[in-house]
C-alpha cells in the first residue's frame, strides 16, 4: 500500500537541511543548540519561550532555513539510523578548543563517515583562555578530517556558545554546505516522515514529534507510523503554534495517534483508515512473532 513514488524532477523543490550536533561529552553540544535556538528568538516573542519538541528551525541572516535535531548525543543518531530513518543531512562536530579531540569526537567522526553525511567542525569554547584551535585542527588530521584552515575541504568555524562569537558564521557555513548538497523533496505528495521522539502525554494522549522528509502532512490526514496508526487531529510546530500542515524538513508534533510510536519509526500517509490499521496490525504481528521467536531461542 505504501508505494515509493518516483518524483519527477520538476516536482522537486529545495528543502532545508537537517542538522545533528555531535561531539564529546561536555564539549558544548547542548549549549550550542541552545545558543543557536536563541539566535532565532526575536525580541517580540513572549519572553523568548520556545517549545522543546525534539527539533527546531532557525532562519539565518541571509534567509536560509535550517532544521536542527535537538537531541545531542550519538545514541539518537545511531538508533534512528539502525531503524532505517536517516534524517541527518549535515553533522556539526563540536570540539572544545580547550580539550581537543577526545574518544567520542572520534566516534562521531566515524558515525558521520559511515552514514556518508558531510561534517562541519565547530571549535567551541573559543572564549576560554586555554583555547587552542590549532591543536584541534592538527589532531583532526589524525582522523582524516582535513579542515579548510589546513587546506582541506571540511569547513571549520571557531565559536563560543557562551559569548555567541562565530554563531552566525557557523550558520552560514551550514547554509553553504546545504547549497552544495542541493537537497530536494516533493512537497505535493502524501507525507512521509520520521519520528524523532514520542511520549504518552497525560492531557493530549500519544504525541509524536515527526520530521517530515517528503510530501506535506495535513490536519485530517490518515497515517500509519511503525506499529501505530491514526488521523492527524492537530499539528503543533516548534514555536508551540498550531499549524494546518507541515512540509519537507519541518518538525511537528502530531496528535491523533492510537498508541505511542518509537523514535525512528517512519510515518506514511495512507488513503484509508482501514489501510493504516491493517499495516499497523500486520507490523505489530510480525514484531510479536519476532519476540516470541527470540524468547524461544
Ligand atoms: P554537552 O555535554 O556536549 O552537551 O556539553 P554542554 O553544553 O552541557 O556544556 C558542558 C559545559 O561546558 C557546561 O558547563 C557549559 O556551560 C560549558 N560550555 C559550553 N560551551 C561553552 C563555551 O562556548 N564557552 C565556555 N567557556 N564554556 C562553555
Automatic annotation (TrEMBL):
Locations listed in the record: Cytoplasm
Tr-type G domain boundaries: 14-182
Residues engaged in binding GTP: 23-30, 70-74, 124-127
Coiled-coil residues: none
Highest taxon, organism lineage: Bacteria
Family: Belongs to the TRAFAC class translation factor GTPase superfamily. Classic translation factor GTPase family. IF-2 subfamily.
Function, in words: One of the essential components for the initiation of protein synthesis. Protects formylmethionyl-tRNA from spontaneous hydrolysis and promotes its binding to the 30S ribosomal subunits. Also involved in the hydrolysis of GTP during the formation of the 70S ribosomal complex.
Name this protein carries in UniProt: Translation initiation factor IF-2
Native source species: Mesobacterium hydrothermale
Full protein: residues contained: 320 to 616 of 836
